[in-house]
Amino acid sequence: MKKVTLEQASEILEISLNTLRTWEKKKLIQGEKNNNIRFFDLDLLKSVQNNLNGNHTEREFKILTSSEKTDFKTIELFAGCGGMALGLENAGLHHELLVELSKDCVTTLQKNKPHWTVFQEDVSNIDFKPYYGKIDIVSGGFPCQAFSYAGKGKGFEDTRGTLFFQFARCLAEVQPKIAIAENVRGLLSHKKGETLEIILNTFKELGYNPYYEVVSAQFLDVPQKRDRLIVIACRQDLNLLPIFPQKNNYTVSLKDALQNCPTSPGVEYNERKKAIMELVPPGGNWKNLPLEVQKDYMKNSFYKGGGRTGFAKRLSWDEPCLTITCSPAQTQTERCHPTETRPLNIREYARIQTFPDNWEFMGSITSQYRQIGNAVPVNMAYHVGKCLIKMLTEKADKNAIIYSINKPKSQVKQLSIPGLNY
Fold first, then answer.
1. How many domains does the chain have?
2. Low-confidence residues of the chain, pLDDT below 70?
3. Residues 81, 105, 144, 170: which is the catalytic one?
4. Is residue 144 annotated as a catalytic residue, yes or no?
5. Is the peptide bond before 408 cis (omega within 30 degrees of 0)?
6. What is the distance between the alpha carbons of residues 338 and 344, in angstroms, rounded to a whole number?
7. 325 in the same domain as 392
8. Is 0.90 surpassed by the pTM of this model?
9. Domain that holds residue 288
10. DSSP state, 109?
Protein backbone atom coordinates (compact mmCIF):
# COMPACT_ATOMS: atom_id res chain seq x y z
CA MET A 1 0.00 0.00 0.00
CA LYS A 2 2.10 2.90 -1.28
CA LYS A 3 1.56 6.32 0.29
CA VAL A 4 2.35 9.49 -1.65
CA THR A 5 1.95 13.24 -1.25
CA LEU A 6 -0.36 15.11 -3.60
CA GLU A 7 2.69 16.56 -5.33
CA GLN A 8 4.10 13.08 -5.92
CA ALA A 9 0.69 11.81 -7.07
CA SER A 10 0.44 14.69 -9.53
CA GLU A 11 3.70 13.60 -11.18
CA ILE A 12 2.98 9.88 -11.12
CA LEU A 13 -0.58 10.12 -12.45
CA GLU A 14 -0.01 13.20 -14.59
CA ILE A 15 -2.90 14.98 -12.93
CA SER A 16 -2.90 18.62 -11.89
CA LEU A 17 -2.70 19.49 -8.20
CA ASN A 18 -5.95 21.44 -8.52
CA THR A 19 -7.73 18.31 -9.76
CA LEU A 20 -6.38 16.25 -6.86
CA ARG A 21 -7.45 18.93 -4.40
CA THR A 22 -10.92 18.85 -5.96
CA TRP A 23 -11.04 15.10 -5.40
CA GLU A 24 -10.15 15.65 -1.76
CA LYS A 25 -12.78 18.36 -1.39
CA LYS A 26 -15.36 16.00 -2.88
CA LYS A 27 -14.26 13.32 -0.37
CA LEU A 28 -13.19 10.88 -3.06
CA ILE A 29 -9.75 10.62 -1.44
CA GLN A 30 -8.61 11.14 2.13
CA GLY A 31 -5.16 11.98 3.44
CA GLU A 32 -3.41 11.01 6.64
CA LYS A 33 -0.93 13.23 8.44
CA ASN A 34 2.56 12.03 9.32
CA ASN A 35 5.01 14.61 10.68
CA ASN A 36 2.66 17.33 9.44
CA ILE A 37 2.84 15.98 5.87
CA ARG A 38 -0.32 14.56 4.32
CA PHE A 39 -0.07 11.24 2.51
CA PHE A 40 -2.60 9.54 0.22
CA ASP A 41 -3.07 5.95 -0.87
CA LEU A 42 -1.81 5.60 -4.44
CA ASP A 43 -4.12 2.68 -5.26
CA LEU A 44 -7.15 4.74 -4.24
CA LEU A 45 -5.94 7.64 -6.38
CA LYS A 46 -5.58 5.33 -9.38
CA SER A 47 -9.05 3.88 -8.76
CA VAL A 48 -10.62 7.36 -8.70
CA GLN A 49 -8.73 8.32 -11.86
CA ASN A 50 -10.00 5.24 -13.71
CA ASN A 51 -13.60 5.82 -12.64
CA LEU A 52 -13.63 9.47 -13.62
CA ASN A 53 -11.96 8.70 -16.97
CA GLY A 54 -14.74 6.29 -17.82
CA ASN A 55 -12.60 3.19 -17.21
CA HIS A 56 -14.98 2.07 -14.51
CA THR A 57 -13.84 -0.98 -12.58
CA GLU A 58 -16.98 -2.75 -11.51
CA ARG A 59 -16.84 -3.53 -7.81
CA GLU A 60 -19.26 -5.99 -6.30
CA PHE A 61 -21.75 -4.38 -3.97
CA LYS A 62 -22.44 -6.60 -1.00
CA ILE A 63 -23.68 -6.54 2.55
CA LEU A 64 -20.76 -7.68 4.69
CA THR A 65 -21.36 -10.64 6.98
CA SER A 66 -19.08 -12.91 8.97
CA SER A 67 -19.56 -16.66 9.36
CA GLU A 68 -17.74 -16.48 12.71
CA LYS A 69 -20.14 -15.76 15.56
CA THR A 70 -19.12 -14.86 19.10
CA ASP A 71 -20.68 -15.02 22.55
CA PHE A 72 -20.13 -11.31 23.16
CA LYS A 73 -23.38 -9.68 24.22
CA THR A 74 -24.59 -6.16 23.56
CA ILE A 75 -27.22 -3.65 24.59
CA GLU A 76 -28.09 -0.97 22.06
CA LEU A 77 -29.86 2.24 22.96
CA PHE A 78 -31.58 4.55 20.44
CA ALA A 79 -31.56 1.63 18.00
CA GLY A 80 -33.51 3.35 15.21
CA CYS A 81 -34.39 1.06 12.31
CA GLY A 82 -31.42 -1.24 12.95
CA GLY A 83 -28.40 -0.08 10.93
CA MET A 84 -25.93 -0.31 13.80
CA ALA A 85 -27.52 -3.41 15.29
CA LEU A 86 -27.58 -5.32 11.99
CA GLY A 87 -23.97 -4.41 11.23
CA LEU A 88 -22.78 -5.52 14.67
CA GLU A 89 -24.73 -8.78 14.37
CA ASN A 90 -23.30 -9.35 10.89
CA ALA A 91 -19.84 -8.96 12.43
CA GLY A 92 -20.61 -11.71 14.96
CA LEU A 93 -22.03 -10.01 18.05
CA HIS A 94 -25.20 -11.06 19.91
CA HIS A 95 -27.84 -8.53 20.99
CA GLU A 96 -29.43 -9.01 24.41
CA LEU A 97 -31.57 -5.87 24.25
CA LEU A 98 -32.43 -3.02 21.89
CA VAL A 99 -34.23 0.11 23.06
CA GLU A 100 -36.06 2.51 20.74
CA LEU A 101 -38.91 4.96 21.31
CA SER A 102 -40.25 5.34 17.74
CA LYS A 103 -43.15 3.01 17.03
CA ASP A 104 -42.33 2.73 13.31
CA CYS A 105 -38.68 1.93 14.03
CA VAL A 106 -39.65 -0.74 16.56
CA THR A 107 -42.09 -2.27 14.09
CA THR A 108 -39.30 -2.33 11.50
CA LEU A 109 -36.95 -4.08 13.94
CA GLN A 110 -39.56 -6.64 14.97
CA LYS A 111 -40.55 -7.33 11.36
CA ASN A 112 -37.00 -8.06 10.24
CA LYS A 113 -35.48 -9.58 13.38
CA PRO A 114 -38.24 -11.23 15.44
CA HIS A 115 -35.59 -12.96 17.59
CA TRP A 116 -34.27 -9.62 18.87
CA THR A 117 -35.56 -8.40 22.24
CA VAL A 118 -36.76 -4.87 21.48
CA PHE A 119 -38.29 -2.47 24.01
CA GLN A 120 -40.40 0.37 22.67
CA GLU A 121 -39.77 2.66 25.59
CA ASP A 122 -38.26 5.92 26.74
CA VAL A 123 -34.78 4.86 27.81
CA SER A 124 -35.16 6.84 31.04
CA ASN A 125 -37.85 4.37 32.17
CA ILE A 126 -35.64 1.28 31.89
CA ASP A 127 -33.80 -0.28 34.83
CA PHE A 128 -30.55 -1.73 33.47
CA LYS A 129 -29.35 -3.18 36.80
CA PRO A 130 -30.49 -6.75 35.96
CA TYR A 131 -27.88 -6.73 33.16
CA TYR A 132 -24.99 -5.88 35.50
CA GLY A 133 -21.89 -7.89 34.62
CA LYS A 134 -23.66 -9.74 31.79
CA ILE A 135 -22.99 -7.38 28.87
CA ASP A 136 -19.77 -6.88 26.91
CA ILE A 137 -20.72 -3.86 24.81
CA VAL A 138 -23.21 -1.01 25.15
CA SER A 139 -23.73 0.99 21.96
CA GLY A 140 -25.87 3.92 20.96
CA GLY A 141 -26.18 6.93 18.72
CA PHE A 142 -27.58 9.30 21.30
CA PRO A 143 -29.25 12.53 20.13
CA CYS A 144 -27.06 15.42 21.21
CA GLN A 145 -29.11 18.13 22.89
CA ALA A 146 -27.36 21.19 24.26
CA PHE A 147 -25.92 20.63 27.72
CA SER A 148 -26.34 23.21 30.45
CA TYR A 149 -22.63 23.53 31.39
CA ALA A 150 -23.89 24.52 34.81
CA GLY A 151 -21.59 22.26 36.78
CA LYS A 152 -17.95 22.86 37.55
CA GLY A 153 -16.63 19.42 36.73
CA LYS A 154 -18.19 19.17 33.28
CA GLY A 155 -18.86 15.49 33.82
CA PHE A 156 -21.75 13.16 34.57
CA GLU A 157 -23.92 15.71 36.43
CA ASP A 158 -23.64 18.18 33.55
CA THR A 159 -25.45 15.73 31.27
CA ARG A 160 -28.67 15.61 33.31
CA GLY A 161 -31.74 16.25 31.22
CA THR A 162 -30.08 14.90 28.08
CA LEU A 163 -30.28 11.50 26.45
CA PHE A 164 -26.53 11.09 26.85
CA PHE A 165 -27.19 11.08 30.61
CA GLN A 166 -29.34 7.97 30.08
CA PHE A 167 -26.58 6.39 27.98
CA ALA A 168 -24.13 7.12 30.81
CA ARG A 169 -26.59 5.76 33.40
CA CYS A 170 -26.77 2.52 31.45
CA LEU A 171 -22.98 2.23 31.61
CA ALA A 172 -22.99 2.89 35.34
CA GLU A 173 -25.62 0.19 35.94
CA VAL A 174 -24.36 -2.44 33.49
CA GLN A 175 -20.55 -1.94 33.58
CA PRO A 176 -19.87 -3.36 30.10
CA LYS A 177 -16.31 -3.92 28.92
CA ILE A 178 -16.70 -1.41 26.08
CA ALA A 179 -19.04 1.45 25.30
CA ILE A 180 -19.36 2.74 21.77
CA ALA A 181 -21.14 5.95 20.86
CA GLU A 182 -21.64 7.45 17.41
CA ASN A 183 -22.70 10.93 16.46
CA VAL A 184 -22.35 13.56 13.78
CA ARG A 185 -18.94 15.02 13.01
CA GLY A 186 -20.22 18.40 14.15
CA LEU A 187 -20.03 17.21 17.75
CA LEU A 188 -16.30 17.95 17.57
CA SER A 189 -16.96 21.68 17.29
CA HIS A 190 -20.31 21.93 19.11
CA LYS A 191 -20.06 24.70 21.72
CA LYS A 192 -16.40 25.07 20.75
CA GLY A 193 -15.67 21.53 21.87
CA GLU A 194 -17.24 21.82 25.31
CA THR A 195 -19.98 19.28 24.58
CA LEU A 196 -17.45 16.63 23.55
CA GLU A 197 -15.34 17.49 26.60
CA ILE A 198 -18.29 16.81 28.88
CA ILE A 199 -18.94 13.49 27.15
CA LEU A 200 -15.32 12.36 27.40
CA ASN A 201 -15.06 13.46 31.03
CA THR A 202 -18.25 11.58 31.82
CA PHE A 203 -16.76 8.37 30.43
CA LYS A 204 -13.66 8.92 32.58
CA GLU A 205 -15.77 9.62 35.66
CA LEU A 206 -17.56 6.31 35.11
CA GLY A 207 -14.26 4.39 34.89
CA TYR A 208 -13.77 4.30 31.10
CA ASN A 209 -10.94 5.54 28.90
CA PRO A 210 -12.50 7.26 25.84
CA TYR A 211 -10.95 7.49 22.37
CA TYR A 212 -12.49 8.97 19.26
CA GLU A 213 -12.08 9.08 15.50
CA VAL A 214 -14.02 10.56 12.61
CA VAL A 215 -14.84 7.54 10.45
CA SER A 216 -15.68 8.00 6.75
CA ALA A 217 -18.22 5.49 5.47
CA GLN A 218 -17.16 5.77 1.81
CA PHE A 219 -13.90 3.98 2.66
CA LEU A 220 -15.71 1.18 4.51
CA ASP A 221 -17.72 -0.52 1.74
CA VAL A 222 -20.53 2.05 1.88
CA PRO A 223 -21.47 3.84 -1.38
CA GLN A 224 -21.95 7.12 0.46
CA LYS A 225 -19.85 10.06 1.62
CA ARG A 226 -20.84 10.07 5.27
CA ASP A 227 -18.63 11.04 8.22
CA ARG A 228 -19.49 9.91 11.74
CA LEU A 229 -17.73 10.56 15.03
CA ILE A 230 -17.08 7.24 16.76
CA VAL A 231 -16.18 7.18 20.45
CA ILE A 232 -14.85 3.93 21.89
CA ALA A 233 -14.66 3.87 25.70
CA CYS A 234 -12.75 0.99 27.34
CA ARG A 235 -13.27 -0.01 30.95
CA GLN A 236 -10.15 1.04 32.80
CA ASP A 237 -9.59 -2.16 34.78
CA LEU A 238 -9.37 -4.30 31.62
CA ASN A 239 -6.42 -2.58 29.87
CA LEU A 240 -8.16 -2.77 26.50
CA LEU A 241 -6.77 -0.78 23.60
CA PRO A 242 -9.01 0.88 21.00
CA ILE A 243 -9.06 -0.34 17.43
CA PHE A 244 -10.76 1.73 14.75
CA PRO A 245 -11.62 0.53 11.22
CA GLN A 246 -8.85 0.61 8.63
CA LYS A 247 -9.82 2.52 5.48
CA ASN A 248 -10.12 0.60 2.22
CA ASN A 249 -8.03 1.72 -0.75
CA TYR A 250 -11.20 1.87 -2.86
CA THR A 251 -14.71 3.25 -2.78
CA VAL A 252 -18.01 1.81 -4.02
CA SER A 253 -19.73 3.98 -6.62
CA LEU A 254 -23.43 4.70 -6.86
CA LYS A 255 -23.46 2.75 -10.13
CA ASP A 256 -22.15 -0.35 -8.35
CA ALA A 257 -24.61 0.06 -5.49
CA LEU A 258 -27.78 0.51 -7.53
CA GLN A 259 -27.31 -2.26 -10.07
CA ASN A 260 -30.45 -4.41 -10.20
CA CYS A 261 -31.98 -2.46 -7.33
CA PRO A 262 -35.59 -3.55 -6.71
CA THR A 263 -38.32 -1.09 -7.65
CA SER A 264 -40.07 0.64 -4.79
CA PRO A 265 -42.23 3.65 -3.91
CA GLY A 266 -40.71 7.08 -3.45
CA VAL A 267 -41.55 10.76 -3.45
CA GLU A 268 -41.97 12.53 -6.80
CA TYR A 269 -41.23 16.01 -8.08
CA ASN A 270 -44.01 18.40 -9.00
CA GLU A 271 -44.05 19.59 -12.63
CA ARG A 272 -42.11 22.81 -11.93
CA LYS A 273 -39.39 21.06 -9.95
CA LYS A 274 -39.08 18.30 -12.53
CA ALA A 275 -38.68 20.82 -15.34
CA ILE A 276 -35.87 22.53 -13.41
CA MET A 277 -34.08 19.28 -12.56
CA GLU A 278 -34.25 18.20 -16.22
CA LEU A 279 -31.73 20.98 -16.90
CA VAL A 280 -29.13 19.59 -14.49
CA PRO A 281 -26.60 17.03 -15.83
CA PRO A 282 -25.32 14.05 -13.81
CA GLY A 283 -23.05 15.32 -11.05
CA GLY A 284 -24.32 18.87 -11.51
CA ASN A 285 -26.30 21.27 -9.36
CA TRP A 286 -27.83 24.76 -9.36
CA LYS A 287 -24.74 26.20 -11.05
CA ASN A 288 -25.77 24.38 -14.24
CA LEU A 289 -29.08 26.21 -14.41
CA PRO A 290 -29.64 29.40 -16.43
CA LEU A 291 -29.03 32.50 -14.29
CA GLU A 292 -32.67 33.57 -14.11
CA VAL A 293 -33.74 30.05 -13.16
CA GLN A 294 -31.08 30.00 -10.43
CA LYS A 295 -32.45 33.22 -8.92
CA ASP A 296 -36.07 32.07 -9.11
CA TYR A 297 -35.37 28.60 -7.71
CA MET A 298 -32.99 29.54 -4.90
CA LYS A 299 -34.73 32.73 -3.75
CA ASN A 300 -32.71 34.52 -1.05
CA SER A 301 -30.19 31.68 -0.90
CA PHE A 302 -28.88 32.74 -4.30
CA TYR A 303 -27.35 35.84 -2.73
CA LYS A 304 -25.75 34.06 0.22
CA GLY A 305 -22.18 32.80 0.37
CA GLY A 306 -20.93 29.24 0.49
CA GLY A 307 -20.92 26.51 -2.10
CA ARG A 308 -24.61 25.56 -1.64
CA THR A 309 -23.78 22.40 -3.58
CA GLY A 310 -26.92 20.60 -2.38
CA PHE A 311 -29.29 22.89 -4.28
CA ALA A 312 -30.72 21.15 -7.36
CA LYS A 313 -28.14 18.38 -6.96
CA ARG A 314 -28.19 15.49 -9.41
CA LEU A 315 -26.00 12.60 -8.31
CA SER A 316 -23.18 11.05 -10.31
CA TRP A 317 -22.90 7.36 -11.18
CA ASP A 318 -19.11 7.36 -10.79
CA GLU A 319 -18.85 8.48 -7.17
CA PRO A 320 -20.28 7.40 -3.82
CA CYS A 321 -23.55 9.17 -3.09
CA LEU A 322 -23.60 12.36 -1.07
CA THR A 323 -24.75 11.91 2.52
CA ILE A 324 -28.41 10.98 2.37
CA THR A 325 -30.79 12.93 4.56
CA CYS A 326 -34.28 12.24 5.91
CA SER A 327 -35.77 13.32 2.57
CA PRO A 328 -34.27 13.10 -0.94
CA ALA A 329 -36.16 16.14 -2.21
CA GLN A 330 -35.32 18.90 0.25
CA THR A 331 -34.37 22.14 -1.47
CA GLN A 332 -30.91 22.46 0.05
CA THR A 333 -30.04 18.75 0.12
CA GLU A 334 -31.38 17.44 -3.17
CA ARG A 335 -30.65 13.80 -4.03
CA CYS A 336 -31.82 13.37 -7.62
CA HIS A 337 -31.23 10.11 -9.49
CA PRO A 338 -28.24 10.38 -11.90
CA THR A 339 -30.19 9.78 -15.12
CA GLU A 340 -33.90 9.66 -14.21
CA THR A 341 -35.44 12.95 -13.16
CA ARG A 342 -36.79 11.91 -9.79
CA PRO A 343 -35.60 11.69 -6.18
CA LEU A 344 -34.01 8.47 -5.00
CA ASN A 345 -36.64 5.97 -3.89
CA ILE A 346 -36.87 3.87 -0.74
CA ARG A 347 -34.94 0.81 -1.92
CA GLU A 348 -32.23 3.00 -3.45
CA TYR A 349 -31.93 4.83 -0.13
CA ALA A 350 -31.63 1.49 1.64
CA ARG A 351 -28.95 0.23 -0.78
CA ILE A 352 -26.91 3.38 -0.17
CA GLN A 353 -27.12 2.73 3.59
CA THR A 354 -26.15 -0.92 2.85
CA PHE A 355 -29.35 -2.48 4.16
CA PRO A 356 -30.14 -5.80 2.44
CA ASP A 357 -32.95 -5.78 -0.10
CA ASN A 358 -35.12 -7.95 2.15
CA TRP A 359 -34.98 -5.46 5.04
CA GLU A 360 -38.50 -4.02 5.20
CA PHE A 361 -39.21 -0.55 6.56
CA MET A 362 -42.57 -0.01 8.21
CA GLY A 363 -44.74 3.10 8.38
CA SER A 364 -45.47 5.83 5.86
CA ILE A 365 -43.12 6.69 2.99
CA THR A 366 -42.05 9.80 4.91
CA SER A 367 -41.29 7.69 7.97
CA GLN A 368 -39.33 5.15 5.93
CA TYR A 369 -37.13 7.86 4.41
CA ARG A 370 -36.54 9.28 7.89
CA GLN A 371 -35.64 5.89 9.36
CA ILE A 372 -33.13 5.14 6.60
CA GLY A 373 -31.66 8.64 6.57
CA ASN A 374 -31.02 8.55 10.32
CA ALA A 375 -29.47 5.07 10.32
CA VAL A 376 -25.85 4.07 10.75
CA PRO A 377 -24.70 2.45 7.47
CA VAL A 378 -24.81 -1.31 8.03
CA ASN A 379 -21.39 -2.04 6.47
CA MET A 380 -19.74 0.70 8.51
CA ALA A 381 -21.21 -0.82 11.67
CA TYR A 382 -19.90 -4.22 10.52
CA HIS A 383 -16.35 -2.85 10.34
CA VAL A 384 -16.75 -1.28 13.79
CA GLY A 385 -18.07 -4.59 15.13
CA LYS A 386 -15.05 -6.50 13.82
CA CYS A 387 -12.80 -4.01 15.62
CA LEU A 388 -14.71 -4.49 18.89
CA ILE A 389 -14.42 -8.28 18.60
CA LYS A 390 -10.70 -8.00 18.01
CA MET A 391 -10.35 -5.75 21.05
CA LEU A 392 -12.08 -8.37 23.20
CA THR A 393 -10.29 -11.42 21.84
CA GLU A 394 -6.70 -10.41 21.17
CA LYS A 395 -4.07 -8.68 23.24
CA ALA A 396 -2.67 -5.60 21.56
CA ASP A 397 0.91 -4.40 21.74
CA LYS A 398 0.87 -1.15 23.68
CA ASN A 399 4.12 -0.15 22.01
CA ALA A 400 2.27 -0.05 18.68
CA ILE A 401 -0.02 2.74 19.87
CA ILE A 402 0.68 6.35 18.96
CA TYR A 403 -1.11 8.92 21.10
CA SER A 404 -1.17 12.68 21.20
CA ILE A 405 -2.88 15.22 23.39
CA ASN A 406 -5.78 16.87 21.64
CA LYS A 407 -5.24 20.55 22.47
CA PRO A 408 -6.69 22.58 24.03
CA LYS A 409 -9.03 20.17 25.79
CA SER A 410 -6.29 17.77 26.89
CA GLN A 411 -8.25 14.73 25.80
CA VAL A 412 -6.39 11.70 24.52
CA LYS A 413 -7.14 11.04 20.87
CA GLN A 414 -5.99 7.91 19.12
CA LEU A 415 -4.16 8.83 15.90
CA SER A 416 -3.15 5.47 14.49
CA ILE A 417 -2.60 1.90 15.50
CA PRO A 418 -0.09 0.31 13.11
CA GLY A 419 -0.46 -3.44 12.94
CA LEU A 420 -3.68 -3.54 14.95
CA ASN A 421 -6.18 -3.38 12.14
CA TYR A 422 -8.51 -6.36 12.01
1. 3
2. 1, 54-58, 144-161, 395-422
3. 144
4. yes
5. yes
6. 9
7. no
8. no
9. 257-374
10. H
